[in-house]
């Protein structure tokens, strides 16, 4: 028939009711539904295709199926004379079918893409015009109708299996699985740009750390008497004493938590040094078995302290990585990455321990190599982190550069310039060979370093003023601020009021930077608190400038990514509560 070549059938599973089925169709005869592109003049026409098993009723939507019906009339495509049944056995008789058939034609007309299948021909062959795809995520599966089972089946199963097992497809699937398990959802948009570099370096250092841990554990077991006929109870007691004494360090170190917020990179690197030193002591225990408890306790204390610092600083890093506030997911993926590193490291450590045996010298030599790898990867991972919060050094560098050039420096430039150990200058030689910044000026770097050394947050008021006149002048000048700033013996002393917030501390540091700028560039020296508070004095000039420009520098800093909601600092615990009375 003319319609058979242009119609695209879709196999449905609805048999005809016994009362209305054509005479040539049985109850089990499948129903075919075909869809062709609809033109303005198209009319749906119901016709019959004859296969080997009998006549199949087909609903065809398109033109050219019946030349006498492809005309424009007022009835439209769904007019009363647009629907007719043709049956080879009874061409003159018309049949009325359920409303479901009409709804099916409407659904077919609304599809944006053409459905594909095979058309059953008189010779039993299947012709494939288009393809039906099943989509699950990024996986597309080709489907064709199976007329014998009244269902859609996967096309070319063996061929698809061969493609699935191909190297490129297998690599892509493995990569997608790894990304789903180890990287936050939406990567790389859901995290910051420094997340991947940090994770890669941390993965390598995690392997090295576990290798050192296996070597240290083996040495401890030899020292406690494993394999030498030691009494199990005595060995267990020594082990418990070693761990119990070591746990005390974690309890005592917890009170320094605020230090970790201010300088997380430096403290994290210090914890890695402490952990490696503890591993080294444990490897030495077989040479001094009679000092097992003492050496083990010292090493255990170092490892416990390192664990506490690592857990505290890890939270700072992960919070910075969460670009979409997906803190929990970033932490979860970080733990998964750590488990993989630990598993690989444990396996390598066991293999290396079997090769070394009980030789302390070989263990120390291997430990030295692994420790170098561990510390190098740690250093690279911390240098890749770009902290966006403002501690005293980063804030001073941002403010100094703003005062000198009128613009806030980028996060990457400031983090690359920040020393890992600001309080210990000789340890900062590790990064002395880095490239010089092309954005940050040498004056700004010098100002940030000097201000951090001269800054004293939380000073006692009684230590910086000696007479009533100075107190009244300072109280009157800073009556609307949450702090009081003055200079005493070369120190920038900031007295914090009881209502002082991190935002007030950030504002006070901006005034400190402007005072330093006046000292270096304008030559305005301190002449005492009362004189500096008068009109035209250092404190009065600097405070007036800060009140005018502080919001501007905040907006400029936020525009390049800085978090300016407050200063991350460790002030002294001193506070004052000034009481103002009207006379």
UniProtKB/TrEMBL annotation:
Single GO BP term: developmental process
Domain spans labelled Root UVB sensitive protein C-terminal: 431-564
Pfam families linked to this entry: UVB_sens_C, UVB_sens_prot
InterPro entries noted in UniProt: RUS_fam, UVB_sens_C, UVB_sens_RUS_dom
Residue ranges occupied by any Protein root UVB sensitive/RUS domain in the UniProt entry: 173-404
GO cellular component, one term: chloroplast envelope
Transmembrane regions: none
Family from the record: Belongs to the RUS1 family.
Protein name per the record: Protein root UVB sensitive 1, chloroplastic
Organism field: Gossypium australe
């Amino acid at each position: 028939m003319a319609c058979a070549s242009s119609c695209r059938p879709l196999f449905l599973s609805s048999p005809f009711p016994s009362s209305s089925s054509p005479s040539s169709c049985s109850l089990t005869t499948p129903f075919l539904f075909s869809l062709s592109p609809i033109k303005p003049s198209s009319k749906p026409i119901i016709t019959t295709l004859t296969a080997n098993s009998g006549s199949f009723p087909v609903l065809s939507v398109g033109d050219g199926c019946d030349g006498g019906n492809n005309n424009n009339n007022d009835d439209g495509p769904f007019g009363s004379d647009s629907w007719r049944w043709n049956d080879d056995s009874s061409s003159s008789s018309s049949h009325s079918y359920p409303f479901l058939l009409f709804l099916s034609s409407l659904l077919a007309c609304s599809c944006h893409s053409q459905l594909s299948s095979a058309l059953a021909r008189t010779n039993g062959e299947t012709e494939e015009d288009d393809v039906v795809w099943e989509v699950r995520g990024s996986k597309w599966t080709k489907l064709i109708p199976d007329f014998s089972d009244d269902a859609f089946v996967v096309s070319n199963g063996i061929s698809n299996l061969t493609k699935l097992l191909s190297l490129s497809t297998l690599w892509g699937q493995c990569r997608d699985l790894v990304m789903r398990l180890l990287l936050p959802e939406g990567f790389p948009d859901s995290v910051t740009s420094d997340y991947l570099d940090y994770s890669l370096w941390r993965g390598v250092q995690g392997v090295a750390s576990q290798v050192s841990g296996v070597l240290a554990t083996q040495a401890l077991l030899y020292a406690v008497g494993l394999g030498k006929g030691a009494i199990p109870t005595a060995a267990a007691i020594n082990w418990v004493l070693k761990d119990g004494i070591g746990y005390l360090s974690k309890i005592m170190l917890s009170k320094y938590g605020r230090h970790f917020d201010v300088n997380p990179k430096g403290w994290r690197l210090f914890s890695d040094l402490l952990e490696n030193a503890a591993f080294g002591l444990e490897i030495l225990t077989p040479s001094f078995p009679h000092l097992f408890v003492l050496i083990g306790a010292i090493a255990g204390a170092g490892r416990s302290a390192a664990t506490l610092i690592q857990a505290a600083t890890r939270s700072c890093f992960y919070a910075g990585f969460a670009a979409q506030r997906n803190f929990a997911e970033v932490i979860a993926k970080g733990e998964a990455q750590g488990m993989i590193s630990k598993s690989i490291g444990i396996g390598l450590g066991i293999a290396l321990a079997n090769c070394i045996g009980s030789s302390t010298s070989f263990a120390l030599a291997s430990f030295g190599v692994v420790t170098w790898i561990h510390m190098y990867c740690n250093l690279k991972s911390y240098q890749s982190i770009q902290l966006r919060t403002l501690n005293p050094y980063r804030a001073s560098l941002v403010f100094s550069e703003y005062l000198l050039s009128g613009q806030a420096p980028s996060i990457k430039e400031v983090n690359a310039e920040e020393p890992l150990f600001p309080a210990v200058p000789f340890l900062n030689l590790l990064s002395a060979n880095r490239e010089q910044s092309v954005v940050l000026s040498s004056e700004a770097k010098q100002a940030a370093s000097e201000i951090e050394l001269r800054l004293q947050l939380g000073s006692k008021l009684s230590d910086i003023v000696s007479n009533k006149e100075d107190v009244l002048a300072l109280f009157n000048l800073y009556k609307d601020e949450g702090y009081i700033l003055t200079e005493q013996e070369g120190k920038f002393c900031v007295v914090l009021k009881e209502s002082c917030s991190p935002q007030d501390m950030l504002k006070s540091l901006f005034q400190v930077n402007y005072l330093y700028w006046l000292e270096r560039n304008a030559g305005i020296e301190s002449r005492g608190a009362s004189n500096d508070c008068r009109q035209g004095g250092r404190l009065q000039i600097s405070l007036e400038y800060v009140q005018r420009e502080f919001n501007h520098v905040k907006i400029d800093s936020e525009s390049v990514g800085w978090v300016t909601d407050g200063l991350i600092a460790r002030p002294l615990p001193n506070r004052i509560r000034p009481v103002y009375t009207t006379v």
